[in-house]
Specification:
By secondary structure, the protein is α+β, with helices and mostly antiparallel strands. The protein is built from 25 helices and 24 strands. Helix 12 (about 420-430) crosses helix 13 and helix 17 crosses helix 18 (about 510-520).
Length: about 650
C-alpha cells in the first residue's frame, strides 16, 4: 500500500470530519461546499484504490452524535444517507428500464415521526443515522403535521422539517439587530426543532414534508394496498393528510429533461433545497438491490453541478461587526451566474482565505452554492499576497487574529469601536428618533466599516463621501440623492426625538416626551438637571435619573452632542398636556392591524394617554387587542383563562373616543 496515499486518506478523513462538525453541529463553515465535494470524491477514490478505510471515515459514517441537551433514542430502522452524483446521465443509467420518483432533496432537518392508534406519539431527529434526539413536543408545533390521522395501525415516517424562505425572511425582518439575524433557513430550522422550549419552536413556522414511509403495520383488513409502487405510498400518505415532498414520475428517457425543469424551478422555490432524490418506484425491485454500509441502493441523490465563471479578484473588503469580528468579503469583476450578476462573495474567515491563497489580481472561479449563495470555488493563480489588515477599518485600532477549533478569524479588540455601536446609530436614525429613511443597519455597517461614520454628527456630513457612496455596491446616484434628502429633512426636529435617539440607557420615546415636557423643551435645563430634580419627572425613578445625569455629565458625550447640535435645529414646539384616559391600564397587542401602520404606532398612542403596553398576557393585563377575537392563539387562550377581555381595534377606538 502506498504510504503517501494512506497518509492522504488520514488527512482527508480528519479534514472532512472537522468540516462536517463545523457545518452540522456548530453552524459554521471552514470550507466551501465546492471544496468539500471535491475532497470527498478524492477520499472515495483513494479508499476504492487502496482498500484502506478508517472507522471514522465520512464515507462510512452518516452524521455526528446527537447533542447532549435532548434525550437520545435509537431508530428502529437506520436512517441512511444516499449516494450522490452531479451527472444527470448517471440518473438515467441508474433507472435503466425502471420508472422512478424524482423529488426535491430538501435542506432542513430530517425527523422520524411515529403514529400509533391514529395519534402522533414520537418524533426523533436523524442524529447519526442510528441514534437521534427525541423532539416530540417540538414536532407537535410543526404547522402542517397532523396530531391525529384516520389510520389506526402503527406508522413510521421520515420527513424533512423545513423553514420556508418567506418565513425565514419574515423572522429576520422582525429582528432589529443585524448581528442577531439568522444566517440561513437550514441553521434556523435545526436550532428551532432542537429547542428545549416548544414555545420557541412554535414561533418559527416549521413545516414537515414526508419523503419516506418506513413502517406500516396493523390489522390485515386495514393494510393499504400499494401494488408494489412507492408512488402509491406517497398518494396514500397524502390521503391521510400529510404533505409529501413535491415529486414527479420519470424514466430513463425523461429524467434529464426533468432535472432541467427542477433547475429552473429552484430559482423561485420557497423551500430550501440542495438537490434532487431519485427513488425506484418498484418496491420489490428496489429492495432486491440491497444496501451498502452507508447507502441504500434503491435511491440516489443528485446535487446541482454548480455553474462556474472565471473572473478577477479586485479587492477584499473587511467588514467589522458589533461582535468585534471583522469579516472578509471578496470583490471581483462582475460575472453572470444562474441568471444574475454577482460581484461579491463572503470568505467567512481567515482560514478559508489562506486555503484559497488569495491575492489582488488573482484569477478565480466563482459559483452559487445550491444555485443561490455566491462562493469562490478555486484560485487559479494562488499568489497568496493579500495582507491581513493590522488596523480596524472602523476605528483604526489594532486588530487581533484569533484561532478556535482550527479556524482563524480577525477581530477588533477595541471596546469603543464604532462598529460595535451599530445598534446605537440604528436607534438614532429610527422612526421614533431622527426619522432618517433609507439608512438601514446594513447601510450603517458599511458606512461605519469604511470609516464614514464615527459619531452622530458624521451622518449629516456623508456628502463628503459622495463619490465613494455612489460607487458602493447596492448604491447609485438615485439612492445617494434619496439618502441625502432624507438626512437633510431630519435636520429640523423636535427635542424629544433627539433625546430618544441619544442612546441614554432606559430612555425610550415615551420617557423622552415626558422629560421634554417637564423641562419645557429646554435642552440646556435638561442637560444641567441634577439627579434629584430628575426624579421629580413623572415615571423617572432614581435609576433612570442617574442614567440621564451620568450621560449628560460625561465629557465625551458633551462633545458629541455639541458637535451634533451644529448640524441640526431644534423646533420650539408647544407640547399640550396629553389626555391620560388610559392611565392605569395595561394592553397587549397581537395579530394584524387595520387602523395603524404597525404595533409601534398603536403602542405610542396608548402610552401617550397614560397606558402601558406589555409583550405577554398576565394577570396584570387589562385588555388584549386582537382583531381575530376567536383566534386559538396562545395569547387569546391565556386571556380567556385569566378572564381578560379580548377587544378589536374598533372596540379600542370606541374606548378612547368616550
Amino acid at each position: 500500500m502506498n504510504s503517501d496515499k494512506t497518509a492522504r486518506i488520514k488527512e482527508l478523513t480528519e479534514l472532512l470530519n472537522k468540516a462536517s462538525k463545523a457545518y452540522y453541529v456548530e453552524g459554521t463553515e471552514i470550507m466551501s461546499n465546492y471544496e468539500y465535494d471535491a475532497l470527498y470524491d478524492e477520499l472515495v477514490s483513494l479508499e476504492a484504490e487502496t482498500g484502506f478505510v478508517l472507522s471514522n471515515s465520512p464515507t462510512q459514517n452518516v452524521g455526528y452524535e446527537a447533542a447532549q441537551q435532548l434525550v437520545k433514542e435509537a431508530h428502529e430502522t437506520p436512517a441512511l444517507s444516499l449516494d450522490k452524483t452531479k451527472d444527470p446521465q448517471v440518473l438515467a443509467d441508474f433507472l435503466g428500464t425502471q420508472k422512478g420518483i424524482l423529488s426535491w432533496k430538501l435542506d432542513g432537518l430530517t425527523v422520524v415521526v411515529t403514529y400509533e392508534n391514529g395519534t402522533m406519539m414520537k418524533a426523533v431527529t436523524r442524529g447519526n443515522g442510528e441514534i437521534g434526539e427525541v423532539v416530540t413536543a417540538n414536532a407537535r408545533t410543526f404547522v402542517n403535521l397532523p396530531l391525529t390521522i384516520p389510520y389506526k395501525g402503527k406508522l413510521v415516517l421520515r420527513g424533512e422539517a423545513v423553514i420556508r424562505y418567506s418565513d425565514f425572511e419574515r423572522i429576520n425582518r422582525e429582528i432589529p439587530d443585524a448581528d442577531a439575524k439568522y444566517k440561513n433557513p437550514r441553521n434556523l430550522c435545526s436550532g428551532s426543532v432542537r429547542q428545549l422550549d416548544p414555545a420557541i419552536t412554535a414561533t418559527r413556522s416549521v413545516n414537515y414534508l414526508v419523503f419516506s414511509l418506513v413502517t406500516v403495520s396493523g390489522d390485515a383488513a386495514d393494510q393499504p394496498d400499494f401494488s408494489n409502487s412507492n408512488e402509491k405510498k406517497f398518494l396514500w400518505l397524502k390521503s391521510l393528510g400529510f404533505d409529501v415532498v413535491p415529486y414527479r414520475m420519470t424514466d430513463r428517457s425523461t429524467v434529464q429533461e426533468d432535472v432541467r425543469s427542477y433547475a429552473e424551478e429552484i430559482l423561485s422555490f420557497d423551500i430550501p433545497s440542495d438537490g434532487l432524490v431519485l427513488l425506484m418506484d418498484d418496491i420489490a425491485y428496489g429492495e432486491s438491490l440491497g444496501r451498502t454500509a452507508k447507502f441504500p441502493r434503491n435511491a440516489i441523490a443528485f446535487k446541482w453541478k454548480d455553474e462556474t465563471a472565471q473572473t478577477t479578484l479586485t479587492e477584499v473588503e473587511w467588514s467589522p461587526s458589533r461582535t468585534g469580528l471583522i469579516n472578509p468579503v471578496a470583490i471581483f469583476e462582475p460575472v453572470e451566474l444562474e441568471g444574475t450578476t454577482v460581484s461579491r462573495a463572503s470568505l467567512h474567515n481567515l482560514s478559508i482565505m489562506e486555503g484559497l491563497k488569495l491575492g489582488i489580481g488573482d484569477t478565480i472561479t466563482v459559483y452559487k452554492a445550491n444555485m443561490i449563495i455566491p462562493q469562490i470555488a478555486e484560485n487559479l493563480t494562488g499568489s497568496g499576497n493579500f495582507p491581513i489588515p493590522d488596523t480596524c477599518p472602523a476605528c483604526h485600532g489594532s486588530t487581533a487574529v484569533q484561532e478556535e477549533n482550527g479556524v482563524k478569524t480577525l477581530h477588533c479588540p477595541n471596546p469603543e469601536c464604532p462598529a460595535k455601536k451599530i445598534k446605537l446609530f440604528s436607534d438614532f436614525v429610527s422612526r421614533n428618533a431622527m426619522n432618517i429613511e433609507g439608512i438601514s443597519e446594513e447601510t450603517l455597517e458599511k458606512f461605519i466599516g469604511h470609516g464614514y461614520i464615527t459619531e452622530f454628527a458624521d451622518i449629516y456630513r456623508l456628502s463628503r463621501y459622495r463619490d465613494e457612496i455612489v460607487n458602493m455596491n447596492g448604491f447609485g446616484e438615485k439612492s445617494y440623492e434619496n439618502l441625502i434628502r432624507s438626512i437633510d429633512s431630519s435636520r429640523k426636529t423636535a427635542l424629544y426625538r433627539l433625546v430618544n435617539g441619544l442612546g441614554i440607557i432606559g430612555i425610550g420615546p415615551q420617557n423622552a416626551k415626558v422629560l421634554c415636557r417637564y423641562f419645557k423643551n429646554d435642552l440646556e435645563k435638561l442637560r444641567s438637571a441634577g439627579t434629584e430634580e430628575l426624579t421629580f419627572v413623572d415615571g423617572i425613578g432614581e435609576v433612570l435619573a442617574g442614567n440621564i445625569h451620568s450621560y449628560f455629565a460625561d465629557e465625551e458625550n458633551k462633545r458629541i452632542l455639541d458637535d451634533l447640535l451644529q448640524e441640526i435645529t431644534l423646533e420650539q414646539e408647544q407640547m399640550e398636556e396629553p389626555d391620560q384616559k388610559l392611565s392605569g391600564l395595561t394592553f397587549v397587542i397581537t395579530g394584524s392591524l387595520n387602523h395603524y401602520g404597525n404595533r409601534d404606532a398603536l403602542k405610542s398612542e396608548i402610552e401617550s394617554m397614560g397606558g402601558k403596553v406589555a409583550g405577554s398576557v398576565s394577570a396584570k393585563t387589562s385588555y388584549l387587542i386582537n382583531n381575530d377575537i376567536l383566534s386559538g392563539s396562545s395569547k387569546n387562550k391565556k386571556a380567556r383563562e385569566l378572564n381578560i377581555p379580548v377587544i378589536t381595534e374598533e372596540e379600542y377606538l370606541e374606548m378612547i373616543r368616550e
